[in-house]
Amino acid sequence: MVLISDDYNIINEREVYDFLEENNFLTPILLNAAKEIRNIFVSYNKLILKMSSYPEYEVNRKLFVKIHTNLEPDKAVEKLQEFDQKWLLKHIKAIKGKLNFDVKIVEDRK
Asked: How far, in Å, are 15, 44, 73, 76, 109 from residue 62 at the CA level?
């Protein structure tokens, strides 16, 4: 799991690592996703990996990757859509509904 922490800032590590242990197919997917995010989001501050915090996901728990970026909102959404088209759609079956990606705009925009 050390490899994951090289690419992601993990919130509630124990919970995330337990989930990854139960769903070990996600580890290589997360590593691959980080590489693709770096290619598409040239300007990003960090990647946050955390368990869902939404009550509706309690039964069907999943991980969330938040891409923190200082891009303008329109550009950030455009980049997320590019990621979805180039990478996510190719891996959607392998993810098995256990992983979501989103962007978060940080104040330090260029």
From this structure: 11, 23, 25, 23, 29
